[in-house]
Amino acid sequence: MGASGPRRGPGPPDGGWGWAVLGACFVITGFAYGFPKAVSVFFRALMRDFGAGYSDTAWVSSIMLAMLYGTGPVSSILVTRFGCRPVMLVGGLLASAGMILASFATRLLELYLTAGVLTGLGLALNFQPSLIMLGLYFERRRPLANGLAAAGSPVFLSALSPLGQQLLEHFGWRGGFLLLGGLLLNCCADSAGDAPGEAEAHLAGPRVRKAPSGGRTRRRLLDVTVCADRAFAVYAVTKFLMALGLFVPAILLVNYAKDAGVPDSEAAFLLSIVGFVDIVARPACGALAGLARLRPHVAYLFSLALMANGLTDLSSARARSYGALVAFCIAFGLSYGMVGALQFEVLMAAVGAPRFPSALGLVLLLEAVAVLIGPPSAGDKLGFPGAFALDTCPCGHMAAGLPSPASQES
């Protein structure tokens, strides 16, 4: 995602070189969101080799997601200081190195530090700059562009989950991690760059302020004044609450299905079902939000998507058969896709392009805490022993007094 293509006019071109930027953002978004979830197909093998439980293995994906979100402010500062291209090149190398080193791990702690911390940091240094660049190239078509870029997540999830299962069966989890590390080098090829004067013209805004002496100006690397914006504050709180449970189904669904007696290949295919529905939902929702009559009310459409996702999660408490799990995946993929397509469009509309990098970094930092708590907490409930334990559905909601899948097998 270079910036060698010419830009014409003072504002975003809403096309032209922007489509190349959109394509690269599609790939990077796919890796950033799809990779931590697809890694879950290796959990049972990790549990067997390391003698660990659900909660212990779920920390790998949780740490990866937490790094993706928690390093948001750091990524914002680095992009402001060095530009998108070098930050993303380094990020691609770190993401790849993390998975390659993880293939040699002998303890779970080593997996946490390599696949979790290092790969998560690398994905973060790719993901946020790509969103910043997308906002610079699209204005009128921005909802559609966000929806198309967000579709990278389900597309890659649909591909990476079965791929991970095949790699696990043929090469084991170590060989799978090694090959996935090589695959992540594609992030380097999609690195973004700043067109001449682009970052200064579009991101400087409130970031440039007078120095105390000499009348010289310096750039504010992280604009924390955005926190005083009421719309941003409401959005940040909403995203924190949402992130507590939004990613839990995708991370624990495969193992929940396997423990319920679903064959491994069919259990892995459940994530593909979510992905297939998600692929259609994200661009469609982005196009819908871009309509002249709906765009001023995109925040309400986002709220509706969140409500639908929450109700879907609640209904999954009784999803125990494969058919019921498939129905849950379809409903979840639809609502999840709507949330994914609208979340960054709502933030961009609320704070504007100049403050978007700082706002995005701060929001991702808040989400990091939530995603670090959610999956491991649900994993504890999912693996709780006993005939009448508190059983947990894939979304992490508990149904008291019901036998756990493990006890049903015994």
From TrEMBL:
Residues 18-410 form the Major facilitator superfamily (MFS) profile domain. GO terms for molecular function: monocarboxylic acid transmembrane transporter activity. It comes from Bos mutus. Pfam families: MFS_1. GO terms for cellular component: basolateral plasma membrane. It is found in: Membrane. It is a multi-pass membrane protein. The chain crosses the membrane at residues 17-39, 59-80, 87-105, 111-137, 232-256, 268-292, 298-315, 322-344, 356-374. Keywords: Membrane, Transmembrane, Transmembrane helix. Coiled coil: none annotated. This is Major facilitator superfamily (MFS) profile domain-containing protein. SUPFAM superfamilies: MFS general substrate transporter. InterPro entries: MFS, MFS_dom, MFS_trans_sf, Proton-linked_MCT.
